[in-house]
Amino acid sequence: MEDESPRKRPLGKAGGLLAAPLFVWMLALVVMPNLILVGYAFCDRDGLGQVVPSFSLDAFTRLADPTYVRTLARSLRLSAVATALCLVIGYPVGYFIGRASKRWQGKLLLLVMIPFWTSFLVRTYAWMILLRSEGVINALLQYTHLASSPVDMLYTEGAVLIGIVYAYLPFTILPIYGSAEKLDGALIEAAANLGARPFRTFTRVILPLTRPGIVAGALFVFIPSIGMFAIPDLMGGGRVPLVGNVIQNQFGQGRNWPFGAALGVVLLVMFLSLLAFALRKDGEEALHR
Amino acid sequence: MSGRRAMIELRDVAKSFGSVAAVRGVSLTIEEGEIVTLLGPSGSGKTTLLRMIAGFEMPDTGTIQLAGKDVTRAPPYERDVRLVFQSYALFPHLTVEKNVAFGLEMMGIAKSEREARVKEAIALVKIEGKEKSRPSELSGGQRQRVALARALVCRPKVLLLDEPLSALDAKLRDAMQVELKRLQQKVGITFVYVTHDQQSALVLSDRIAVVNEGRIEQVGPVSDIYHRPRTAFVASFIGEANLLRAKVLSRAGGKLRLALGGGVEVIANDAAGGTAAKGAGAEAEVAVAIRPEKIHVERAEFEMDGTFTGVVEDEIFRGPLAELYLRSDGGLRLTAVVATRTADRDTPSRGDRVTFWIHRDDVVVLEK
Q1: Which of A60, A259, B39, B314 gives the lowest tally of CB atoms within 10 Å of its CB?
Q2: CB-based contact (8 Å) between A197 and chain B?
Q3: Angle between helices A157-182 and A102-113 (to 10 degrees)
Q4: For residue range B252-295, what is the model confidence (pLDDT) as tens digits?
Q5: Is A281 on the interface with B (CB under 8 A)?
């Protein structure tokens, strides 16, 4: 149990060879582009928006502009709220599926996965149809006289939040499901046997033991939702710009690649430190499993 | 045992899972301070019985009383019962110390007392020095001790043990059996031990309840279960037995005269037979069990009242004992077990002509 974990075995020659394509892939498509991005962040641009190689901190100084600070703060806040919502909704679902009988697990997981079979854009447009002033929900509200005039739902921060939660919920459910599925039912019984009421069993046994799933599920929502630009564009109607929108704009119409890159570097540093923190804590835990 | 307080009382307890009846009407009283073993093969319902006592399953019908209080529908966390799980179920995220303290914490016991009791429990099961270790850093035997300490530290009325020795190797298992018994005498808590291993049941228990197909076949002191099995199942599940069909030749004066076939006729105590044989007149058929070591075998031929002659067809040497496969001159086959002796000439071996006899106390008439 202690020493036989296959993860701890060194790769070996054959293993190294098999893993080589992955390393090449990661190097060429993840590490290199990110290094280029960092390089761009220190460059200048000419009047036409062409990147001029140099060493300048102009792009980073511009980050201090209150507009961008506010955008970054809004992104962080929205992502944090979305992450919290995803955990609150996703934890019971993931836990329930993880504790269901094997026969049901497959079916329930399928239900979680089905939305992926439809294009992300189509699903987002579906939400727009539901939420807009002449949409299904407003029609229903007016028909039942719960509202006399259409309620503004689309193109609000709330709509963006709904969009993010909807898009990323499965990514919270799946790792929590993974943790819950591995949880030994005897531990829950042991807690009850030792006098723990259900709530204490949850806080003292279930929650700590499904923590890896919670951490992974939170990261899977928080990190991509900060950089998200499609949902704020479509469901926020440009009224709720997030960092992702600003970055996209700098590389597009704004034609200010160094500034876009500098914003990207800020996110990158944030993500990496978050990831390092999460992995360090869980690594310690994993040693004791 | 009498005069002691009933600690656990099961009355007509039954439980089905879907269409499968796991427990079919069990009544059993376990007294304070006893070690009672629920012994049976896998799927016999013994674990379901244990889980109902712990509160993890609710019986469909019947009642369960704990120290005179009805707990049939009480949730597990309200029962003064602690269970040592087969897998030990130690909390992997907590140290040994915190595992042991868990139950006390749930009981709301103050920190200072908690620490003293944890220390005491850890000393009781001899795992000092491992307080700060995680379960994953312990050996199987150490984990089992932690599981025991975690349960005992709560000073429950009843300790339930679900095959706690099955994950240990044979040597360690033997040592732990003795240690468990010593521990029980020390703490005086009622133990209910569930196992399919008849050997550890014999070593550990005051009384054994033999469980088969959701029912208790027989319950009684260890020696009764061994020497006076009531059914063929009990006779063959605990120890070895020659199971035979016998014809009642006559009954008189508390004695039955039985023909085992092959010209072998024995006397059995009428009282031994339990209910099925009662009233069975001459010519009735009864089932009989004879323990192999109760068959006396001599490597000589002589004729006396109640002795038979035959031949050793085969033998298996088992160290201190030897198994002999006998065939009487009339063709009846029996297995006997004899002590091996250093002097070769004394132990009957393959091909030897022998004389054998069975004392009437050792012929057990079965109910079915």
Answers
A1: B314
A2: yes
A3: 160
A4: 777 888 888 888 888 888 765 454 455 556 678 889 999 999 99
A5: no
Predicted ipTM of the assembly: 0.85
Comparing alpha-carbon positions, the chain B residue that sits nearest to A2 is B136
Name chain B contacts of A208, Cβ cutoff 8 Å.
Answer: 93
Sign of CA dihedral A120, A122, A128, A130: negative
In chain B, residues 41-60 whose CB comes closer than 8 Å to chain A = 54-56
Residue B228 structure tokens: 């006076």
Kindly state whether B18 is in contact with chain A, defined as any CB-CB distance less than 8 angstroms: no
CA–CA–CA angle A139, A143, A147 (5° rounding): 80
For A137, A145, A155, A157, A257, the CA distances from A152, given in Å and listed in that order, are 11, 16, 8, 11, 36
Predicted TM-score (pTM) above 0.90: no
Question: Does A195 contact B at CB distance below 8 Å?
Answer: yes
Quickly tell me which residue has 């014809």 as its tokens: B247
- Taking the Cβ of residue A265 and every Cβ of chain B, the question of whether any pair is shorter than 8 Å is answered with no
Q: Kindly report, residue by residue over A168-216, the tens digit of the pLDDT.
A: 999 999 999 999 999 999 999 999 999 999 999 999 999 999 999 999 9
CA–CA gap between residue A152 and residue B245 (Å, rounded): 89
Residue A8 near chain B (CB below 8 Å): no
Dist. CA B233–CA B38, nearest whole Å: 15
Nearest Cα of chain B lies from the Cα of A118 at a distance, in angstroms, of 40
Closest chain A residue to B134, measured at CA: A288
- CA-based radius of gyration for chain B: 25
